[in-house]
Design brief:
15 helices; mainly alpha; three-stranded antiparallel beta sheet; about 400 residues; 3 strands; about 5% strand
Length: about 400
């Protein structure tokens, strides 16, 4: 045991955040799945508790082994992961498991396990973009040599994710744009891409509105229209129940396991788990969860500034940015600041593949942190563009 602790390196604050969010996940998932487990498993309400516990333990093991790997190896893995993501996403659109008219999952034969291919694609894309940014720093202001090799892969992956999961595609695209901005890509290039993406989205919405599309685009249109509607009757049912949960929680909450909204709120263990946290632990408890993600971002910024090599710096910051933005968007949906999406709360919502790939991302961040600790200040040179600037 002592040997294991001695081999555990990396930012101790990030490790603390991992265990804190894991504890929150166990409490919130156990509470929010009580009714579901009772209906599905005839009163065995502990089923989902033990299932989530096993997934989180697997996640911690993944974090440990991932942080022991030298992060430079992920640079080599990035190209393979990116190239594999494209056929996986295409296969998912064509043959993936359907839920609410969206093909997001692949079901593995024999073991009958499903996972979201977008989780693999997100991780692979961030590693690939970090690799490209670090390699293209000398020509980063050149549109053809510096910008296109970075932005084309982003566009391809986002375009393949968008038909089934627009919120994830927009989140991924925005996170990559932010990472490119930090990587000194000229602002005019980024603004042109953002403008083109917005024009494409508006065009898709206009076509869906004109044709009366009832597919995924039609769902996006209805969600946005209901969000901006001044008529309370247009408020989605899950948002209404989320507001009831938040109002019932108040400042200190009802206490662990005392949620009533879990019996009425759709997907309280995933898409709306933050509402359950607000109801049971109040504004104070929910603020602690929010603070945990913000501290994760701050610690990753510190790793970015101290990492002597551009790839590690971009990798740590890029992965943390997408996790934190996803968490903030999940919270914003739960308190009705954004239209309803299918985004989960990283490392807290119930899930298998989402927890595993989130754990892998955190393990990579800690791998960079471990390298920074071991190298110390002796290599603090201009190889990091943040230092050079």
């Amino acid at each position: 045991m002592n040997n294991l602790l001695q081999r555990t390196k990396g930012d101790k604050v990030i490790w603390t955040i991992v265990f804190f969010l894991s504890a929150v996940s166990l409490l919130a998932v156990y509470s929010s799945t009580g009714s579901l487990a009772y209906r599905v498993y005839s009163g065995h309400t502990e089923y989902y508790l033990f299932k989530q516990l096993s997934v989180l333990l697997l996640g911690v093991l993944i974090i440990y082994f991932a942080h022991r790997v030298n992060y430079t190896i992920y640079s080599r893995v990035a190209q393979i992961g990116f190239l594999l993501s494209i056929p996986l996403l295409i296969y998912t659109l064509a043959f993936g498991s359907n839920l609410n008219d969206a093909s997001r999952w692949i079901r593995l034969p024999v073991i009958n396990l499903t996972f979201q291919t977008s989780d693999i694609a997100k991780l692979a894309l961030f590693m690939y973009v970090s690799r490209q940014l670090s390699r293209k720093q000398q020509v980063i202001t050149d549109f053809k040599k510096g910008f296109l090799p970075i932005i084309v892969p982003v566009g391809v992956i986002c375009a393949l994710i968008m038909p089934a999961n627009m919120s994830t595609a927009l989140l991924l695209g925005a996170s990559c744009m932010l990472l490119c901005f930090i990587g000194r890509v000229p602002l005019k290039f980024l603004l042109s891409m953002v403008g083109g993406a917005l024009l494409l989205v508006v065009l898709m919405f206009a076509i869906a509105k004109a044709t009366g599309d009832k597919g995924r685009t039609g769902v996006w249109v209805s969600r946005i229209e209901s969000f901006f509607s001044s008529n309370d009757e247009d408020t989605p049912y899950q948002v209404q129940q989320s507001m009831i949960a938040i109002a019932g929680g108040g400042v200190v909450g009802k206490g662990p396991g005392n949620s009533t909204a879990r019996n009425f709120l759709p997907h309280p263990y995933s898409d709306f788990i933050y509402a359950i946290i607000l109801e049971e632990y109040g504004i104070f408890g929910a603020f602690l969860v929010l603070a945990a993600y913000l501290i994760l971002l701050l610690r990753s910024i510190r790793i970015f500034k101290n990492c002597p090599y551009a790839f590690g710096a971009f990798l740590a910051l890029g992965l943390s940015v997408t996790l934190v933005i996803q968490a903030l968007m999940h919270m914003a949906v739960n308190v009705h600041l954004l239209p309803v999406t299918g985004l989960t709360l990283p490392l807290v919502s119930m899930g298998g593949s989402s927890v595993i790939f989130t754990s892998l991302a955190i393990g990579i961040i800690l791998s960079v942190s471990r390298n920074v600790e071991e190298t110390g200040d002796k290599t603090q040179e201009v190889t990091n563009p943040a230092i050079a600037a």
